[in-house]
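Just wondering, does anyone understand what follows?

——
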Amino acid sequence: MKKTTQRTKDPKTEFNLGESMLQGAREALAYARGEKNHGCIAHVPEKVDVKAIRHRVHMSQDQFAKNYGFSKRTLEHWEQGRRSPTGASRAFLMVIAREPEAVTRALTG
């Protein structure tokens, strides 16, 4: 018969884990409220393949531009490599790429 050992709970480890979870929840709430110094870091890639994102959501350039508030000319420049999206546009495109339905819900009220 195999002898099993019972793990004892370490209150110090449980406290650290609980505190870590609470801290993460506090940071997420601060981020959602738009507070400064929220502790969250957004990871936005340097390069975004706009054409691939547009194809993934099955839209023409006209549809994509109208649905997401870009000018068609800007979209064309991005897709042809004459310009690259910067800052908030790059972040917004990543959200469209990952959660297009959520963006559509948010923009259509």
Notes: Residues 11-33 form the longest helix (23 residues). The chain has two domains: 10-40, 50-108.
